[in-house]
User: Fold Cysteine--tRNA ligase from Gracilibacillus orientalis.
Amino acid sequence: MTISIYNTLTREKEEFEPIEPNRVKMYVCGPTVYNYIHIGNARPAIVFDTVRRYFEYKGYQVDYVLNFTDVDDKLINAAKELGEEVPTIAERFIKAYKEDVSVLGVKEAVHHPRVTETMDDIISFISTLIDKGHAYEADGDVYFKTRSFDRYGKLSHQSIDELRSGTRIQVGEKKQDQLDFALWKQTKDGEISWDSPWGKGRPGWHIECSAMAKKYLGDTIDIHAGGQDLTFPHHENEIAQSEAANGTSFANYWMHNGYINIDNEKMSKSLGNFVLAHDLIQRHEPKVLRFFMLSVHYRNPINFSDALLESAKNSYDRIENALTNLEHRKESCVNLADDNQQWLDNIEVLKQQFEKEMDDDFNTANAIAIMFDLVKEANVYLNSDHTHTEVIDAFIATLTAWLEVLGIPQTDDEELLDEEIEALIEKRIEARKNKDFQQADQIRDDLKERHIILEDTPQGTRWKRG
Assistant:
């Protein structure tokens, strides 16, 4: 079945037809690296990584580009507040971003371009727009001439006059029209800058993505993706400047993920409910966080709370327990079952249903429901009198492949030997005697992660695999 994508540009689901056979050119707007990312930034990282993984599962090569905005007003302000250089701050939080999303199961992009490393391309892009009459210089600043692009507003589905009514010219701006936007900003004293034909300055926000997409993926790309909040003005402006400069369609499919609410309220600094992914990872299992994010369709808003995360953990544990039980049963199979084909056929039907849901605009919520159907089927099979390794292998392979698509691959930790468990228990007993309860709890939790359950009884500590 062909993959269909809800295209923000047309507001319809459309069958995906790549520009080149079996290849996907995909650009995702990345973070402005002036701080740790919040969970609103983590959602598109997880969502579009899953989209990429599913394309790869279906046999596509995905040229995945995610940029870093490593110079802009937020970085400059942070540098002033901290007394550091902009590149130092950017480098620190690029490293932090990569660490955080890696823990959340996000694969490294094929390209991670930065604004500061794409400056020649950005300046060339702006020059082309000026030469074609779509931009103008004003005392060291350069602005895009919005009314020169007659399709402006096609992504946000608003007319240019409707958009104009909500804008105004800020103090110090020299643009000719309220809707015109900055491509190049003249440097203020003491700010980081680059030489250009219009004097020392730095790029505006929108131009960077157009230049990077063109450099790494070409004039027209398959998919452009990002958070819903970027639809206007960022993505609208990208379309205008890219199509004005290149004379061709910029992106064939536009994908946007929904917002995150905290306890049913929109996340914002002013409400004090701003949650950093960096902090959240310390309190919750990253794989559960990712599972939770994918339990709702990517275009829908998602409500975040500790109670909902706990519920997600309980649900995810059912999958892990099923895999563990299948692995343990495999060791004791006598292979006397004679109805293997019926079970294999049932698994195949569920595989087709899983792919049908994912083919339908990457509906991970429904795909996860199919996964639980498979878990239920596996549990019924494990309760039967006779089992066969062929069927158990099929259950394990299917669940493992689906978890890989969702970005929750299973670790290949070697199973602890009995004597290793006993040694850790002795170490825990010693820690409790020394009132080092933190170490004792850590050992218990580490063993639990490895599916070793401890029971403290009057006769001593017992353990079991579970």
The chain has a mean pLDDT of 91.
